[in-house]
Amino acid sequence: MSDLFDLEGRVAVVTGGGRGIGRAIAVELANAGAAVVPSARSTDEIEAVAADIEAAGGDAVAVPADVTDPDAVGDVIDRAAAEFGGVDVVVNNAGFNPDDALGRPEDVETESLDRVLDVNLNGAYEVTHAAADHLHESDGGSVINVASVGGLVGLPRQHPYVASKHGLVGLTKSMSLDWAPEVRVNAVAPGYVSTELTDDLEGNERLRQSIIDRTPLERFAEPEEIAGPVVFLASEASSYVTGSVLAADGGWTAR
Known about the structure:
The protein is 45% helix and 13% strand. The chain is an alpha/beta fold. The protein has one domain (2-193, 223-250): NAD(P)-binding Rossmann-like Domain (Rossmann fold, 3-Layer(aba) Sandwich), CATH 3.40.50.720. Strands 2-1-3-4-5-6 form a six-stranded parallel β-sheet, sandwiched between helices. Helix 1 packs parallel to helix 2 (43-55). Residues 10-186 form the Ketoreductase domain. InterPro entries: KR_dom, NAD(P)-bd_dom_sf, Sc_DH/Rdtase_CS, SDR_fam. Keywords: Oxidoreductase.
């Protein structure tokens, strides 16, 4: 069974791969044997990830890019193919939920909605589109979109984010139909995860406790707990899984 999770000889591109969930995904894909191309806007962060992977005996190359820039996205895919011979796995993890996109609908400007959609949804489409030829040439290409519980249910005062993640879930399902059987397309929907992005939440005892009370497993996840499902979806262990959304949410959506 362990051979089914072996990613030796596979090449994986991970957007938003410099910290938090993206960093954990990049590291665990490398631990499973994949050559990894972490990408993000911060060159320092992704170079640190690549260095850690190589220090552990893996193969990695860092390629900075903003997922809203088609030319930069194309460079990431081209560099991955040039360095490692192709692209077999794409993990669309880049995303954000800025302060100006939080609030009641009447208080959030459409410009904020546009920015969130551009990164969280359009960016994922852009990266997948750029990698399409390589994925179809691969012997078992796999796309994993990092959505959210906010792609499965509503979350108050996070309307642009929720809209973007619902869109990503829809994109996952529709793309899986067109690309089967050559390429599998799935999503992971994390709940609340302990990263720099949730530091403020965890620092607010009232909000932190309300999230824990709402979560059957009674805690935030660690980034590595999201990376595990991604490795599963990238590997032959999930060879009959496509168009699915794996909720890694501590039971949040079971209520």
